[in-house]
Write a structure and sequence with these properties.
2 domains; alpha/beta; Rossmann fold; about 230 residues; six-stranded parallel β-sheet; 10 helices
Length: about 230
């Protein structure tokens, strides 16, 4: 069955799928490295600073998704932990860096290759929606700064729902808000558990956007490495 006859509702993830999280975040972190004179504090280079931040931040987000920490703890902890790798103990500095990061990163506007083009391709033929994990004030800035809100009928943010993907409630809420039936839905996202397995468990078809060709045991309905490949589905 062709995509046009089967699907009515196409749901997208935001970070790492449409919004180029890695490039935008790294640009903000490079600015932090120089603005706060981290070389003078013993941080050898921006690449090590970025790599350490990404490792720490990813681990904290796992704890947040498991409800082991809250939003405030995540934000207040991450740069303290990063700086501690170089034996820097300065809570005010960590707080200032965090505020700078939150004030800069969401305003970056780089999208993943082909993202806007595929939204243009799908718009008008499908009801497009967005489901994203994250903090609503940050995600809304990203969506608006990149000028992509106009593509989506509904934007569902995990903080508003009270759970994060892959929790089934976020997919149930999405169906209720859009009036969609599970068999009409397909979800496009980069994360094998949160996006692919979560939507699969909800009874939706899935597109795993996997530009780095990561190996994983999850078997999606479709797998793509570039958005151009979606034109074969839709």
């Amino acid at each position: 069955m062709s995509g046009k006859s089967k699907y009515r509702h196409v749901f997208f993830d935001l970070d790492h799928t449409l919004w180029d999280f890695k490039s935008n975040s790294r640009e903000a972190l490079r600015d932090i490295y120089s603005t706060f004179d981290l070389p003078g504090l013993g941080v050898p280079n921006s690449m090590e600073f970025i790599a350490t931040y990404e490792k720490v931040n990813d681990a904290l987000w796992v704890e947040y998704r498991r409800h082991q920490i809250d939003k405030t703890t995540l934000r207040n902890t991450r740069f303290n932990r990063v700086l501690s790798f170089w034996e820097i103990s300065d809570e005010k500095l960590a707080e200032d860096i965090n505020e700078h990061y939150l004030g800069q990163s969401p305003y970056k506007t780089r999208l993943m290759p082909g993202a806007r083009e595929i939204l243009d391709h799908l718009q008008g033929n499908y009801d497009l929606h967005l489901i994203t994990n994250g903090f609503k004030e940050i995600q809304n800035i990203k969506i608006d700064q990149c000028d992509i809100r106009k593509y989506f009928r509904e934007v569902i943010i995990s903080e508003d729902v009270g759970v994060q993907k892959p929790h089934p409630l976020i997919f149930e809420t999405s169906e209720q808000r859009t009036g969609a039936r599970s068999e009409e839905c397909i979800y496009i996202g980069d994360h094998p558990e949160s996006d692919v397995q979560g939507s699969k468990d909800a009874g939706w078809d899935q597109v795993w956007y996997n530009p780095e060709s990561i190996d994983h045991h999850v078997v999606p309905t479709y797998e793509i490495s570039h958005f151009d490949e979606l034109k074969e589905i839709f």
